[in-house]
Amino acid sequence: MEFETLIYQQNNHVGVVTINRPQALNALNEKVLQELALLAGHIKSDKNIRVLIITGSGEKAFVAGADIKAMQKMTPQQAEEFSITAQTAFNAIESLPFAVIAAVNGFALGGGCELALSCDIILASEKAKFGLPEVSLGLLPCFGGTQRLPRAVGLYKAREMVFSGEFYSARQCREFGFVNQVIAPEDLLNEAQKLAETIASRGPVAVAKAKQSLNTGFELHINDGLKQEAALFGELFSTEDHHEGISAFIEKREPHFKGE
């Protein structure tokens, strides 16, 4: 697929999407959001993709936020529609049936932080900065930040981050619990690729079911979550991957999963 604001590449079972507006620090405008949703819709049923990496072009920014200039003259109705467009795109990314890794190479502010939060795993450069500074503009995070951040760091820390609008280092965010690893800038994409290849080597149906259990079970009472976990576990016993995985273990060889 051809995009105006994204660069998409696929190597074996790993897709890499780069948000490509370096002149605007990869800020999210309506076009970027529409193309992210389009890409997610296109690849969600692609059996060849087992992991997606999302990053930003250039050295300064992952995504420096929403496009403020594009927001300057919005009416209240247009602003709400813009929020819904972004939420729709990020929901599409979050619901992809495979792992999504954010490789945060620089500023991840506002919408950039919210995009990272819609991913399953966040790897951050030592130079990365995170924050939700919308209140400094008289606004609030509206791309899912007030909903995903408390789930990631707890309500009290989320309140501090949102109300203050301050920026936080990658190491601070790792301490808060939503950055998985902090990596030297020159190694970030290589480390993201290594992790992606590791995940891609596992049973893709199993990863998809595990993601479903983690994401939906988190919102359920533990008893309901446990029932769902058992049901998903049972479903995996009808897959070819399950037979291949167990056979490979018994035969002491590497499994060759087909996603079936």
- Class computed from helices, strands and strand pairing: alpha/beta
Percentage of residues in strands = 15-25%
Tally of DSSP β-strands? 10
Shape: globular
Mean pLDDT across every amino acid position = 95
Q: What is the string of helix and strand elements?
A: EEHEEHHEEHEEHHEHEHHHH
Report the total helices.
11
The neighbouring-strand order within the major sheet is 1-2-3-5-7-10
Major sheet details: 6 strands, mixed
Low-confidence stretches: none
How far apart are the first and last residues' alpha carbons, in Å?
Answer: 26 Å
State Rg. Answer: 19 Å
Helix content: 40-55%
Q: What are the salient characteristics of this protein?
A:
260 residues, alpha/beta, six-stranded mixed beta sheet, four-stranded mixed beta sheet, 10 strands, 17% strand
Describe the structure.
This protein has helices at residues 30-43, 68-71, 76-94, 111-117, 145-153, 155-164, 170-176, 188-200, 204-217, 222-236, 240-250, and strands at residues 6-11, 14-19, 51-56, 61-63, 99-104, 107-109, 121-125, 129-131, 167-169, 181-183. By secondary structure, the chain is α/β, with parallel strands linked by helices. The strands form 2 sheets. Strands 1-2-3-5-7-10 form a 6-stranded mixed beta sheet, sandwiched between helices. It has a 4-stranded mixed beta sheet with strand order 4-6-8-9. The radius of gyration is 19 Å and the shape is globular. The chain starts with 5 loop residues before the first strand and ends in a 10-residue tail after the last helix. 39% of the residues are buried. The model has no long low-confidence stretch (mean pLDDT 95).
